[in-house]
Specification:
The complex is a heterodimer of chains A (192) and B (160).
Chain A: E1 17-20, H1 32-38, H2 49-54, H3 58-73, H4 80-94, H5 97-111, H6 115-121, H7 130-143, H8 151-159, H9 164-187, E2 188-191
Antiparallel strand pairs in A: 1-2
Helix pairs in contact in A: 1-3, 3-9, 4-5, 4-7, 4-9, 7-8, 7-9
Chain B: H1 8-13, H2 20-25, H3 29-43, H4 53-64, H5 70-73, H6 82-89, H7 96-110, H8 117-125, H9 130-157
The chains are: A mainly alpha (192), B mainly alpha (160).
Chain lengths: 192, 160
């Protein structure tokens, strides 16, 4: 059996814990603006170390969180799983292990299958669907500095049946991880 | 409430007001308005935490040099002279604090995977407060986000 034709195993992705490098805001010592900012997330009582780290600058935290939620959770348009895949590819290239882990698990949950994640883990691009391959190639090219995405990437997205609106959604999902990865990875470390 | 258009992203991506992609962006007002609110929150925040808007502009311009998009770069006013001009044009500022900031944002913008705790220590050692480090991180990352939105939309524009 050649490597190319070996069946991919199912994969399970274990959740990671993120720990900030810098001391986060302590809820007891937070300013009114920081307290208000930290309420943006649904789980109000226990505020994560990530949120408390970014609450040092409450104004940008609130603005970015609202934009992030709009881009990742907006109704209709690009299917959620495709947004997660764009997020995952960007996170892998940007070296953000924590984000990659979270969005790999989300993708498995959305698609009820680990086949795409397994193809990425075991470096088997041949095992990807044409749609997943087009999304990943575009996400990688948009994530480089400077971005290297070109007409051939865009052609591939149209060829797998994406509409202009869906591509607008995908561009934003990849771009917002160009932002999120540059916070999560530089500001802390993750471990099992 | 929707903001005024064409906005920075429209102009830098070369979207024409009568083009279909210009209209398509308006289908997602939460993206349009969200990006504008974010821009204000990192470039001209109500509380700048001691990082003045002129410095923020120079840093964002420096990062946007990595877009290879002259229209996007031109959205940031070019400082007249001195260290802010050096910051904005990709040169190394002479002030040690500013040069530490420049080195840090260069790494995060171009090779975020290389970031480590030592980079944050260098910023604190150069005299930045923790809130300033966070604000700088958000500013750098916003500029990286905007570069990619503009690049993607500019490609898509060719199909309308």
């Amino acid at each position: 059996m050649t490597k190319q034709h070996a069946p991919l195993p199912h994969v399970k992705v274990k959740a990671l814990t993120w720990t900030p490098h810098l001391p986060p805001v302590e809820v007891e010592e937070a300013t009114p603006a920081q307290l208000e900012a930290m309420k943006v997330t649904p789980s109000a009582k226990k505020v994560s170390p990530y949120v408390r780290t970014l609450a040092h600058d409450p104004e940008s935290y609130v603005a970015r969180t609202e934009l992030f939620n709009a881009i990742m959770y907006v109704e209709e348009g690009l299917p959620r799983a495709d947004r997660e895949l764009g997020a995952l590819a960007a996170s892998l290239l940007n070296g953000c292990q924590y984000c990659a882990n979270v969005h790999a698990r989300q993708h498995i949950r959305m698609t009820k299958s680990s086949s795409t994640i397994a193809a990425l883990c075991f470096d088997r691009p041949d095992a990807l669907s044409a749609r997943d391959a087009a999304i990943i190639d575009f996400a990688n090219a948009l994530t480089t500095t400077p971005p290297s995405a070109n007409k051939s990437h865009m052609d591939s997205l149209f060829n797998v049946g994406m509409s202009e609106m869906e591509i607008v959604d995908l561009v934003h999902a990849i771009a917002i991880f160009g932002w999120a990865n540059r916070l999560m990875h530089p500001l802390g470390h993750s471990q099992v | 409430m929707p903001h005024n258009r064409p906005d920075v992203i429209d102009r830098a991506a070369g979207l024409l007001e009568d083009g279909s992609l210009f209209a398509l962006r308006a289908v997602r007002p939460e993206f349009l308005n969200g990006a504008e609110t974010c821009r204000a929150s990192v470039l001209t925040p109500a509380d700048d935490l001691g990082l003045e808007p002129e410095l923020r502009n120079a840093i964002a311009r420096r990062i946007s040099l990595g877009s290879a998009n002259a229209d996007l770069i031109a959205e940031y006013p070019l400082p007249q002279a001195g260290d802010l001009r050096a910051m904005a044009t990709g040169e190394m500022p002479s002030d040690p604090k500013l040069s530490t900031i420049a080195n840090h944002t260069d790494t995060i913008a171009k090779s975020p995977h290389e970031a480590s705790a030592a980079h944050l220590e260098a910023l604190l050692h150069a005299g930045l407060t923790i809130p300033q480090v966070i604000a700088l991180s958000e500013l750098t990352a916003f500029a990286a986000f905007q570069i990619r939105v503009v690049h993607g939309l500019a490609l898509l524009k060719e199909y309308q």
